[in-house]
Amino acid sequence: MRSSLARRTRSVALLTTLVLAAGLLPGSVSATPTRDAGIAGGAAPGACAQIKPANEVEEGMMGRGWTVVQGFDPSPFRVEILGKLRDGIAPGRDMIIVEVSDVAGRDFIDRAGGIWRGMSGSPVYIDGELIGAVAYGFSLGPSKIGGVTPAEDMARVLE
After folding, report:
1. 61 vs 30: which has the higher pLDDT
2. CATH homologous superfamily for 2-158?
3. CA distance linking residue 49 with residue 119, whole number of Å
4. How far apart are CA 78 and CA 66, in angstroms?
5. pTM for this structure?
């Protein structure tokens, strides 16, 4: 039993490290324009979107995320800001807590039951400004609640 728990603990630690690394990769902050421009909220912002400071992101704000479900074209999803977890990533690095849902005419979030492993690095925007990228899921099963690494923190890595 003890070795099983140790293996599980190591697996969780490794998974957490990989998810965090995926959220911090420079490529995770860019988006490609897509043919989904007609969906409410418009097209994915260009690769050089302005970064929205994390202190301007507030509970109740609505945003748009982009992820690739199949192939190469990004698909939009809705994001509601539930709050921020102070020091949730590391000391001095807050995590933005979100709930994801499908946009009209799409059902990939519902079909998946929420956030899935392949969504790590999916950019999230509010009013055309980049707030960060999906980096965390909070359960071993399906959940629409997750964590976003703030874009400010990712940009600091590039400095």
Report:
1. 61
2. Trypsin-like serine proteases (2.40.10.10)
3. 20
4. 9
5. 0.70
